[in-house]
């Protein structure tokens, strides 16, 4: 197999529509569904098979967290936005990527330059110092590549969620709180969580069929505290409550809406539908998707772009244009452009609140009905 560095290709609505009908899209959805179904009724604290590949990934995540701990934030008290030290951390990860990937059993060495790109992008955007569901998708793509290359197998599906993916989320919480990563566009502010989507999807699968805990239980702080040890969904709710004031109804209206759904089965099926529409179906997210030889593009190529380097943070953006020429403007993209109005980190907002300083409050009305019925 001839490996090649992944690159951005999706620029237009037509290309996005082609992607949605492609084999790569089908594979991503299939992997999500397989991982989702594998953890129905499974707790984070349950025992599971951990293959050598899973253990190696876990070690890599530990090392990434250590790189963050070895790279403290710079004094940036004048700003409530991302800390510039994140760029130093990002560069350290890039430098360490070849040696980290060498830990993975059976990984072809010539594949490392390709899959390292997904790995690097999974931690956030170096230029904008932000993080959102698109970066989270890069981590999933990295795991898909590892599966394609034989590092992990079908039997690893439980461990990939409750061990590997959950460890990734924990490392991301360290990065988010250390470097005050901004939510990636207004999508983050009015979404499920300022940063993540998949923990809610997999977390609702864990709770499917639970006899006693209901979706409305997210409003009971005692239940949230107790079951956050066992279920991603409650762990994420607990995290949100720890950094935001007021009730869930005000700072996380979509999660409040979802809490009215009767069963976890409906919540879980709704989460999958929502992911297809709001992540895999949104141009501001998917214009950053990377195609290489493993996750290959088989559609029409984008027109040449010379004015902005493809490696730049703004390459291919479908920003709002006066006539919406060739892309999606703000009125079309639902939750907003991926790098429109900067939004302060939730940690910065919490710090401002704690110190009684003026700061951005992540509150507001619900934005739309959610597909949970």
TrEMBL record:
The entry's keywords: Cytoplasm, Isomerase, Rotamase
CDD domains: PTPA
Cellular compartments annotated: Cytoplasm
Biological process per Gene Ontology, one example term: mitotic spindle organization
EC number: 5.2.1.8
SUPFAM superfamilies the record matches: PTPA-like
Xref: Pfam families: PTPA (PF03095)
Family to which this protein belongs: Belongs to the PTPA-type PPIase family.
Function: PPIases accelerate the folding of proteins. It catalyzes the cis-trans isomerization of proline imidic peptide bonds in oligopeptides. Acts as a regulatory subunit for PP2A-like phosphatases modulating their activity or substrate specificity, probably by inducing a conformational change in the catalytic subunit, a direct target of the PPIase. Can reactivate inactive phosphatase PP2A-phosphatase methylesterase complexes (PP2Ai) in presence of ATP and Mg(2+) by dissociating the inactive form from the complex.
This protein's name: Serine/threonine-protein phosphatase 2A activator
The organism of origin for this protein: Wolfiporia cocos (strain MD-104) (Brown rot fungus)
Native organism taxonomy: Eukaryota, Fungi, Dikarya, Basidiomycota, Agaricomycotina
